[in-house]
Amino acid sequence: MRDFFIRSFELIVGLLVIIMSIVVLVAGLGAMVGAGQAMGGPGGFFAGLAILVIGGLYVLFIGGAMYLGLGIYQNTRRTAEAMERLAAARD
Predict the structure, then answer these.
(1) Under a CB-based contact definition with an 8 Å cutoff, are residues 48 and 32 in contact?
(2) pLDDT at 40
(3) CA 79, 76, 19, 63 torsion-angle sign
């Protein structure tokens, strides 16, 4: 049951990273073509470029943090299994 939740979380993390990347891309391109100006906000090429760069860094940071957490879990599990095999071999 525990493995089900971990695998599900890995799937959710992957989907979230993909969705966040698509949202950043659409928002950046939308700002570049002037969609922000229609709603009274700033727009233009440099605003869209800023959204793409800052949004991309955000996706990298958040996605990396989530994958780092999953990696720590997997390394801890493998270490515990190795310690159990070592302890069983000594007995």
Answers:
(1) yes
(2) 62
(3) negative
Band (pLDDT 50/70/90 cuts) for residue 84 is very high
How many domains does the chain fold into?
1
- DSSP per-residue string spanning 46-69: HHHHHHHHHHHHHHHHHHHHHHHH
Joined tokens for residue 79 = 């270490």
> What is the pTM (predicted TM-score) of this model?
0.76
- The answer to whether 47 and 31 are in contact (CB under 8 A) is yes
Structure tokens at 26: 């659409």
What is the model's pLDDT at position 41?
63
CA dihedral 60, 63, 69, 74 (to 10 degrees): -100
Domain carrying residue 82? 2-90
